Amino acid sequence: MEREVLHRILRDMLLSRTFEERAAEEYAKGNIVGFLHLYPGEEAVAAGVINAVGPSDYVVSNYREHAHALVRGTPAREVMAELFGKATGMSKGMGGSMHMFDRERRFMGGYAIVGQTCPIAIGIAYAIAMRGLPEVVVSFLGDGAVNQGTFHESLNMASLWRLPVLFVCENNHYAIGTEIHRHSAVPEVFKRVAAYNIPAEKIDGMDVVKVYNATRHALDRIRRGGGPQFVECETYRYRGHSMADPGTYRPAVELKAYQSEDPLTTATRELEFRYPTPNELAEVGPDNIRTFADHLINEEHLAEAEIEEMKRDVQRIVEDAVVFATQSAQPTMDAAWSYLTGNGRHETLI
Amino acid sequence: MSQELLYWQALNRAMDHEMAADESVFTLGEDVGLYGGSYRVTEGLYAKYGEWRVRDTPISENSFTGLGVGAALVGARPVVEIMTVNFMLLALDSIINGAAKIPFMSGGQFKMPLVVRVPGGIARQLAAQHAQRLEHTLMNVPGLRIAVPSTPQDAYWQLRQAVVSDDPIILLEHELLYFTKGPVDLTAEAPPMHRAAVRREGRDVSIVSYSRHAVLALEAADELAKEGIEAEVIDLRSLKPIDWDACAASLEKTHRMLVVEEDCRFAGAGAEITATLMERCFYSLDVPIQRLAGLDIPTPYNGALEAATIPQIPDIVAATRELCQPTSETKAA
User: Is the pLDDT of residue A274 over 80?
Assistant: First the structure.
């Protein structure tokens, strides 16, 4: 991989982590309200996938999508302002955390109905195929979404018509609080996908280089006319499902295992169903970002000092985003009405 | 210059016209292609435009409707046919959570040029799962527009208007209207899509209805004329938005109104029409606005019972006649 790409990926991961931790603080202060689903732990997926996607491709995401938007290039200011519900937010304060859209960057939303991304993604892909364009759609979904009818219906149609769509499953093992062995009769998602004659592979979603490479190869296959592809990224969220969820259903050791480098620690799983304390989190080894950063240092792509500078840089960006969001104006009811219809103002209805 | 066309033929002509005019228009649904459409609306289009623009889908209502939503986001103009309104219940997530919300939730970044065509209503002994009218479900959703053509001419006009509009539009087509005939002028300028039509002028009472029951109301008005009651018949043509000015103008002339609908009475379209006009025109009324609606019961299979669950022409005649009885005040005068 090129050094430039590696830099960008690490920076995106750091930005995502810093942004989300700061969003949690702002939520605690009451500046962000509603549901807030944070991304820490899963950064390798967003950074690996979206950095492999071209500018004319489309990205469709679900309700845990702040990092997806940031990696796609939406300024942190606009993402934070949306969380604050301000007029300067990427969805003008109408969508909030779960409904982020950036038409200019072909970031096609933020959907809060589990599984809804699948038909929307194949619809965009259908329009591309009908027009004979070279673009591709990348659609994120969680492991919880694979039990929705829309998932199966959409895979079927995508395969039937060989639509240019890459499905990326962010398998964090939990449908809110229900662990995958308790929600899926066949817990290996890629096996279920294979039933639709769609090539599917499962990769380590904590390893950003693997995610990036798998995505590139899948996109190449699609562009060569290979039809829809599926990549299952095994990952883990360090926090609860949302800010309303303390995550007490997960053994603390399970979380520690995903934060540390050593996969053997999973063998020491114990029945300790509670969310770990900040001290316990600090004790555990490097997480997915630290692992990647160490890799870059070992390979002499980056010096520790450069990484520290990168951290300070994203910290500045996030601080600036919070100031911007705080100072931005509230949207008006007139603006809200104007978004309700696409052309009512230009078409005589009655 | 008009020609006689069946309702389905008028829809077919409208589709053909818009598909020829704009390559981003396509249609999809169950058996719309090779089979030609359950009610023949897409007949001939598959051969003419090919499978990408006339797509036969699997039986996956929610996802192929959602496919339309996704395609509309990137500027295609999908016309989704859902085989009957009963199956549309499976697609409500795509329609209500998707089409109706995305332009708004995105802060106006995206338009939603989606048309969903849905046959519905009570036809001939299709039983409870194939004999519903679900307009009330859609009327309550901000962001949607609903057209209810009752004539071949309106079917032609309103489908063409729906395709070129940038809003999500539901076209509720009545299953018993597909094989009704009427004059269609393919070149005449259409009235605005949601404007009501006064089908018959009258001084004594206003009958407001839509879809197939607007046709029945017109027949009832002819019966009433024989008794000396001149009913004005208003065909709403649209349930969202509703042409309140047309209704109010008629009420201010006749001072009496009957609202006729095939759908169930409870919380139906008639309830909204009646409540709004009572609020707006209370002091113009000689008597309270009355509703004549379907019974609040699933549709029985048995033919006689099925007929008994929805307003028939004699019911409209009787209800209108009753409404035109002199009030105590006018009696005294």
Answer: no
Q: Which CATH architecture has domain B197-328?
A: 3-Layer(aba) Sandwich (3.40)
* CA dihedral sign of residues A116, A117, A120, A121: negative
Q: Which of B58, B62, B238 sits opposite A119 (nearest CB)?
A: B62
Instruction: Give the residue carrying structure tokens 């955390």.
Output: A97
CATH fold of B2-185:
Rossmann fold (3.40.50)
Neighbours of B264 (CB within 10 A): 22
- Cβ(B34)–Cβ(B46) under 8 Å? yes
> Residue A176's CB: how many other CB atoms inside 10 A?
14
Tell me, rounded to whole angstroms, the distance of Cα B188 from its chain centroid: 21
Task: Give B-chain residues touching A110 at CB under 8 angstroms.
Answer: 105
CB A158 within 8 A of CB A165: yes
The greatest distance separating any two alpha carbons of chain A, rounded to the nearest whole angstrom, comes to: 70
Average pLDDT, chain B: 96
Catalytic residue among B43, B130, B175, B306: B130
> Which of B309, B291, B120, B142 is closest to B209 using CA atoms?
B291
Q: Which of B18, B30, B61, B262 is catalytic?
A: B61
Question: Nearest 5°: CA angle at B189, between B187 and B195?
Answer: 135
Provide, as residue numbers in chain A, all residues whose Cβ is less than 8 Å from the Cβ of B167: 341-344
What SS3 class is residue A241?
A: coil
How long, in residues, is chain A? 350
Q: Is B130 a catalytic residue?
A: yes
Angle A208-221/A288-298 helices, nearest 10 degrees? Answer: 90
Q: Using CB atoms, which residue from A160, A340, A343 is nearest to B104?
A: A340
Question: Is the pLDDT confidence value at A243 over 90?
Answer: no
**Distance to chain A for B161, nearest Cα, Å:** 10
Give me the residue spans of the domains in chain B.
Answer: 2-185, 197-328
Helical ranges in B22-121 per DSSP H: 45-49, 61-73, 85-88, 92, 102-105
Domains detected in chain A? 3-238+307-334 (3.40.50.970)
Eight-class DSSP state of A102 = B
Look up the ipTM and state it. Answer: 0.95
